[in-house]
Design goal:
The chain has six helices and 13 strands. It is an alpha/beta fold and 221 residues long. The longest helix is centred in the first third of the chain and has 16 residues, at 15-30.
Length: 221
């Protein structure tokens, strides 16, 4: 089993929540095996509106003070660690729409053989990789995470992670926007030098929706 964590935040316009509702539904019906979903909100004033729309089986809804996407992620991962500290988790934001079925079986197999993270959506360009194959799993890309490799080996595009990723790298940076949070964690993955990351697709069944971005919006606590 896998738990999907989706972060969201709406500034009161309701536009990001429209994205979140559509993406939540695509995750609920499109992922195999059927996931538990945690929707973790960054202190939106109208969170109750989203909660009323998304309430239902196998969806947990979390919120807290407005303190950045890192705070939302930490809240969800800590919640999951209480429920099952050994369960892998998948991360996505509220504007990556799943357009077809996504089978996580191969990604979970890679976690089982020692990977800390497997990217299941479009990876970033300019990454150095080695093509790997194993009977029973198939082909995948082993992303280099040791210097002087370049690019975003870790990134917040859709991925699935073993609990080991969070144990090794630690909590996400809070009190900053999503771009700074992503850059900080990526840099810490490089600095660690021992994180194993794979990719199982160069694109996958994903569509990045919407034009209303929040990544560079200032955080107020």
């Amino acid at each position: 089993m896998v738990t999907v964590i989706m972060t969201t935040w709406d500034d009161g316009t309701g536009l990001r929540y429209e994205y979140a509702v559509a993406c939540h539904e695509s995750l609920r019906i499109g992922i195999t095996p059927n996931p538990h979903i945690i929707v973790t909100d960054d202190g939106s004033h109208n969170f109750n509106n989203l909660a009323m729309t998304l309430k239902g089986s196998r969806t947990s809804l979390l919120t807290g003070p407005h303190n950045g996407i890192g705070s939302s992620l930490n809240r969800a991962i800590n919640h999951l660690s209480v429920l099952d500290p050994h369960e892998p988790w998948m991360y996505t934001t509220d504007d990556w729409l799943l357009t077809d079925n996504l089978d996580l079986t191969r990604a979970i197999q890679l976690l089982d053989i020692g990977y800390d993270m497997v990217r299941v959506g479009p990876p970033h360009p300019n990454l150095e990789c080695t093509i790997q194959f194993q009977a029973g799993i198939g082909w995948w890309l082993d992303i280099h995470t040791y210097l002087p490799a370049t690019g975003f080996a870790f990134a917040t595009r859709p991925f699935i992670a073993a609990p080991s990723l969070y144990r090794k790298i630690g909590a996400f940076k809070e009190g900053v926007d999503s771009y700074e949070c992503e850059r900080d964690y990526s840099d810490r993955v490089w600095d660690h030098g021992g994180i194993k990351i794979a990719a199982v697709t160069l694109h996958g069944p994903w569509e990045h929706i919407g034009e209303y971005a929040v990544g560079n919006r200032p955080v107020t606590v």
